[in-house]
Amino acid sequence: MANDRLENQRFEKQKNKITRRSNRKGIVIIQIIVLLVALIWILPLYIIVNYSFKTKKKLYLESPLPLPKGFNLTNYQTAFEKLNLSTTFVNTALYTIISVIILALLCGAAAWAIARRKSKFFKFAYIYFIVGILIPAQALFLPIYIVGYKTGLVNTRIGVILMFIATNISFGVFLMTSFMSTVPVELEEAARIDGCSVYRTYFSIVMPLLRPAMATLIIMQSFQIWNDYLMSSLYVSTNKLKTMTVAIQSLFSQQTSDYSTAFAAIVLSVLPIMILFICLQKNFIKGITMGAVKG
Fold this sequence. Notes:
Layout: H1 2-51, H2 56-61, H3 74-82, H4 85-116, H5 120-134, H6 141-150, H7 157-180, H8 185-193, H9 198-209, H10 211-226, H11 230-235, H12 244-249, H13 259-294
Helix pairs in contact: 3-13, 4-5, 4-7, 4-10, 5-7, 7-10, 7-13, 8-9, 10-13
């Protein structure tokens, strides 16, 4: 019996060693794959930043991988002047900030009502927003433009902001509704017992608990609106209302293309969104893991 026990223990030890080795090999393989995928994603960004400091001559003659001998800021100055970034940057920031703030308020309130009310009206409203996600944005170009043209909202800042809100509210409501299942109802019931109104319950109790979902919504919608080209070009034709993406597209034509200036402009356009993501990344990850997975 003692010999059998010793043999069993040795067998279990060998089995555990083999399992650990296989697990380590699997982890190493996964890390290598993740590293390769990261390099594939980082390489285009590296080329864009690298080329933004090179002259047009070096852009066509040199390889995209070596770093420039000196950091030439001429491309950034040209981009600032050629694209009128003092106007286009302000327009893009204005459209994005106002649209995202209104979307966060509307989507949060709508998701709270849909998640807490079980009537047929709110169930139909939730399905209505889900259907809005399934419709391709390209299919909405003509009806959106017709509505904007007849109401006089084309080539106006209010029209652009309302267009962004209308085209992004469906996804926002879906995201916030999925997160509302993590908010305990007991807190709202206790607030009502203490005499809180509906508005105070939402703004004082519910909204603070929705911060991770709000951060997720703000980042995702900011990416979408800041980098949007199709909708912006559809609603805007005057130079004083153009966004950065529409202005950058003007550098490319059938005859000539100013790639060096375009690369510098792309770097400038990416910086604000990168800073926003760095500031809200903790809440963004928490919102994705708690809300999107659970919903």
